[in-house]
Each structure stands twice: as C-alpha cells, then as structure tokens.
Amino acid sequence: MSAADLLTAAPSREPARHSNFTRVVIYGLLILFAFIYLVPLVVMVMTSLKPLDEVTGGNMFAPPHHLTFDPWVQAWGEARIGVSDTAGIAGYFWNSIKMVVPAVAISTFLGALNGYVLTKWRFPGHKLVFGMMLFACFIPFQSVIIPMAVILGYLGGIGNSLSDLTGYSFGFGNPTENLVIVHVVYGLGFTTLFFRNYYEAFPTELVKAAQIDGASFFQIFWRILMPNSTPIFIVTVIYQFTNIWNDFLFGSTFAAGDQSPMTVALNNLVNTSTGIVEYNVNMAAAIIAAAPTLFVYIVGGRYFVRGLMAGAVKG
Amino acid sequence: MAFLEINGLRKRFGSLEILKGIDLTLDKGGFLVLVGPSGCGKSTLLNTIAGLESISSGEIRIDGDVINDLHPSKRDIAMVFQSYALYPNMSVAQNMAFGMEMRGVPKAERDKAVAEVAKTLQITHLLDRRPSQLSGGQRQRVAMGRALVRQPRVFLFDEPLSNLDAKLRVDMRVEIKRLHHQTGTTIVYVTHDQIEAMTLATRIAVLKDGELQQVGSPYEVYNSPTNLFVADFMGSPSMNLIEGKIARTNGAASIVLQRDGDQPIVLPAPSSANEDKLHDGGSVIFGIRPEAVSDPESADRHSKSVATFNSHVDIVEPAGSDTFVVTKIAGKEVTARMRADTDVRPGQNVPFAFNLDKAVLFDPASTQRI
Fold this sequence. Notes:
B: six-stranded mixed sheet
C-alpha cells in the first residue's frame, strides 16, 4: 500500500468506527422498543393457544404446554356474546365487514371528488367550504351523537313509510347502513383534507391539457387524476379502514344486538359478568378483531409513509 | 380576412386589469410570437385564446368564427405547455391519442395518425414508453406530437423551451421552425426570450403591463421600435440609449451628446426621424444598436451616413465571434460591436463609427419614437 493510499484510506476509517458505536445504540433502542411493543401481542397469541387451566394456573409469559386451537374455534363460532347468543363473533365480524367496506369506499371516493373540485375547479368561496369541511376533523365524536340519533331516527321513519308503501325499506333504518352513513359523514372531513392536499401539488397544466383534449369533468377525474393518486388512495383507505373498524362509540350507540359491529361484540364477550372468564377465548377474539387492520397495514403500509410525505414535499 | 383575430380584448381580475384592450391579427400559416417581460400578460393572452381563461370584454375569432365562449375543446386548438403536461399514467402513444380518443375517433384511425406524427418527429421508438422514462428534449417532442396529431386550426405554445438547457433549446428552436415550414400551421407562441421571438416569428407582438407596445415583423420590431421599451427589450446586447439635445443650425437638425471632460459629439439627425418634431434645444434620446457602432474599417459601406469620433475605451468583452467594446458617452455606457480580432485595450482612445442609417430618436417625455 502506497503512502497516498494510506492518506486516503485513513480518514474514511475514522467515521466508520464512530458510526459503529452509534449504530449499536440505535439498533439497541429500536430492538428494545420493538420488544416493548410486541410483548402484549406475544402474550395474547400464547394465551389464546393454551387450555384454560394452563392460563389460570400458569405463568403469563410461559409458552403453551398443550397447544390447542380450541379457543379460536370457540371465539369464532361458539362463544357466548352478551346474554343469550352463543354463535361466537363470526356474525359480528361480517357485520363489521359489511359496514367498513362501503363506508371506506364511499368516503374515499367522495373525498377524492371533493379534493378534485377544491383544487382544480375552484369556485368563489372554495376556501370557506374547505375550512368548514376541515372543521369536521375537530368535532369530537360524543358531541354529534344526539343530533345524529335524531337524523337516523328520521331516516328510520322514512324506511318505515317506504316499507308500508312498497314492502321494502331500501335500507333506511338498517343499523349497518346507518353506521355506513355516520362513518361516511364523519370521515369526509379527513378524506377531503388528504385528497385536497395531494391534488394541490398535482400539476394544474395536466388538467388544462386534458380540457383542451376534450375530456369532461369526470373523464379528467377518472383518466388523469385517479390513476395518479395511488399513494394518497392507500393512505386514505388505511386511515379510514382503521378508524371505522376500530370505532366503538358509534357502533355501540347506533347498532344493537346481533347487528352490532365487531368491536361491540368483543366488548360484550370480554365483559361477561357471569361464569368463568375464558381468557384464552377472549384473546383469540381480540386477535381476530385486530386482524383486518393488521392485514391492511401489511399490504399497504409501505405506501402509507410515502403517501404522507407526498403531500408534504412538492415534487 | 385574417385567420386569427383579436379585437379589443380585455381581461380583469376584480379591479386589476391584466389585458388592456388587445388588438391583434394573424394570417393563416403565420407564426405570431407574444414577447414581453414576466407579468406582462402574454401567458394570460394565450390562455384566453385557448379558452382556459375567460375574457372580460372583446372578441376572439378563428377563421371568422367568434370563439369567445366556446369550451377549449371546441375551439379546434392545441397547446404545448411549459411543463409539457404529459399524462404520467399513459404511454407516449396514449398521450398523443388521448385528444382523439375523447373525440371518439376510431382506434385504427388514431393509431395511424399517431404513427405518422411520430415518424415526422422521429419519436417512433418512444411510443411505448412512459413520460417519466423520457429526457427533457424527448418530452418536448412528445408534447409537440400530441398537439400536431389532431391537426388543429391554431397551435398555442406557452414558453415551450424554457425548461431545456441552453444547447437543447437552440436545437429545438430550429426544430420548431422546420416544423412550421413543413406543416404550414398557424402558431401563437409565448416567450420571454427575445432571441426566440426574433428567430421564430413571422410576426412579433411586444407586450408590457397588459398593453401591446408594437406588432410587426421581426425586422420592423428590431430596426424601428416604436418606443423606448421595445428598443430596450429587443436585441442582445440591448440598444444603446443616450440622452442628448437637439440643435438646429440653418434649418438642419443635429444631435448633441455631452461628454465628461471632452468635446461634445455632434451628429446629424438620423434620416428615420421626423424632422418636424425636432425643436432646437429640445431633449432627445438617441438610440443605436451595438452592431451599428463599430470600428471604422468594419462600418457598413452601403450606409448613407456614418459619423466617426474618438472615445476612451472602458471595458473590452471578447465574445469569440465579436468583441464588444464599452465606452462612456453622456454618462451612459455605450456598447460597440467590433471585429473579433480588434486590438483594443481599456484606456485607449480609439475611433468609433456610428452608422446613422440605423439610429433612432425617442422623445424622453412620452418615450415614443420621433
């Protein structure tokens, strides 16, 4: 090795040694916090795979002796939810799916449409309208419950009249559809905010070019805006899905009995005050309740950070 | 009748008037360049022709039809944007065909038109690529291709070359000029670059603060500017504008330019000036382009009137093809264009030849041409 090589090699080695130490500290902390975050999940999974006597008699952190999937089967199809029902949480799981999918789809689509109009088809007073929609993000859930109940009651009345007239209520008054309406209304503020900020940075010249090319309002939306909105789409879907799936307050207020969503059913299962508390079944049910949001994060997670950044930094 | 006609066009944003009564005409196959400093309203004017912005009053006609209130897509125009505005989710071919697709042209016909234009622009090999996979020059070509493929009545270009680097800009300029010759299309082109305006246009419209300053051929605008603004804006290096006084002796008018610590320069009034407006003792601004000020050997031999005098050299700027020599007259820096191999050094007292055929006079009060 020549003298010149030594000269050039020496300085590059010094920061490397320094960064090794830093790296150990960083990774050490990351592992520690990952551990803290993961312990509850690990305990949940382990508990759900143990028979009940092992749960009540053993150590919470001990791995299962006799591996069993019975608690899962029970939680899904046999557990007693509330007072009388013994069909497990399966039905409630589907209630939640039936509520979440349309609510997420409609609120995301309307948010995209709002964002498009508020940035590319500005009208006098567009700032005021956006400000008011933004305000929806700051309204606490609790404060809208009573007015919402009044409106839903009114819609139920319409449903009854329609039922009398045609024999079919067209979904008015159905608890699941009521929850869809509530979540769409409540979510619109957020979805509009997301899409407006994303489209704000979207080049207006593309819209002008499409106008000259003869594309209509909706053609521009479908053909130009939407195909270029994947990141913000995924962000909005994850956000809305998580919020709506995890909602308990609206679910417990506006839906009752076997129409309840998953979160309410889980509460009813866990809060049973009669008999023995079946921790293993409760844990299995809780994991099932959390699974869809986990799934959505795993599938769309990498877009989440990317999409949140996209609005923040131009280009 | 002119192909494109703009009559008394005004555009207001609230109380702010952006375009203050524009009258313009362009013949079929003409190349009109709207040029002016930023904020002069040239892009707004182009957008009103495109229909992307409404007008407050006035009228726009294409081939006799009033198009004021038509939707942009119904005006039979195509536009090339500064950012190219290519749809990022579509291939080059889809980008080019989008306008025809929206108009319900059958697929076979679309493909044929795209293939033809792609061949003219030499972008056939790019047709399947996405815009993000193209270089700046290629995107520029695709943007032009998208405009060409529909064969509209008028093409609008909004500063199409300003995002390209200097070398590519010159290449594309030639390309656009060739395209205009080949296809004979009618073009309205916005730029702030006066060289682009000079080289491309068959007709130049100079704008300032929403008002037309001058409309004419590049030769007219360059050689007989109607006011100080046009004289100063067009040409690089810009025109020398020197303050002077008028002196009339025995009926003949002459221009007197004062100098610090030296004899004043007395020049006969240029033939282009209106004699009746030259009053004895009146102030005047004497304008002469750098290429009309030279060393006596390279002065224009066909000129009817050349005045030569000595002056001190301030700065020498060799530019390769020419050497620009700066001297001070009447407190103003005056640039002369001399031969590339001129042996002139700062501080020397050398002869400068003024070609007065090319000189123009302005009224300092009204800034208008005399």
